[in-house]
Amino acid sequence: MADPPPKDWSVWLFEPSLPLAIVGTVVYTLVTIWISHLTCYKYKAWYFVSVPIGGLCQVTGYAMRAYSTQHHQDIGVFASSTSLIILAPILISAGNYVLIGRLIRAVLPPERHRIFKVPAQRLTQVYVSFDVVCMCIQSSGASLASGVGWVGQLADIGTNILLAGLALQVFAFSTYLCILVRFYYLSRSLEVPTSPPGWLNVLKAVFISSILILIRCVFRMVEFAEGNDGYTLRHEWVFWVFEALLMVFALLVFCVWFPSKYIGDAGASKPKKSGSEAAGGSSIT
Fold first, then answer.
1. What's the pTM value of the predicted model, to 2 decimals?
2. Are 159 and 151 in contact (CB under 8 A)?
3. Cβ within 8 Å of residue 67, ≥6 positions away
4. What is its main location (predicted)?
């Protein structure tokens, strides 16, 4: 018969801070309420609803983390908290991805609604599809690893799956930043006179949020690649700097520069033109 685990056994590899977990929960709650108000009430920007949903996942994850700091042997709460905090940024990423098409349509002339020969609407579809695939891969890995308390052989398999999902997310965001840079370059010479006056604020928000999420994904890749013996998993400050702090600013930037405030419906999808109308347009890469 196997020996029972020691009474001081803990799912944590360090002594977690309850005050920091409470502060994290409160801060994410306030930011999520703010972005939810802007999205669902003030501007009714339903295209952006994945962002407040991601914020709600963060709030739940940090609240569960606060509970877990005082219940070190509750594997279920610890695993759920970890999974929610890992997966929430994917929903926030979707908000970044839906904005590229709106920016292109709001700022560039109709015949230039292509970046690297890809139509604006297709760009949104491609990157949102990337996001869905990342969500499926990362949730599968997180579910497998969390189901065994993030320890053991199955946890290692789940972690490798999660790493693959994170690597895909890093790839997606890296190419997305290239798209944003190309769009900005084109906008300098091709901006239409009717473009919304505050569109550059939206582009700033997307740039900042995307870069912060990209850095966070790289951090997570390093963390899981190092394993339980790595520095990142054994020192709590790394989590608060490269996960909690980066992601709260990735959310907060859209509270300051909310897309619908600056571009409204100017970048919304338009009905498809007839073949004769579309034939007159040209494109550049």
1. 0.88
2. no
3. 74, 77, 81
4. membrane
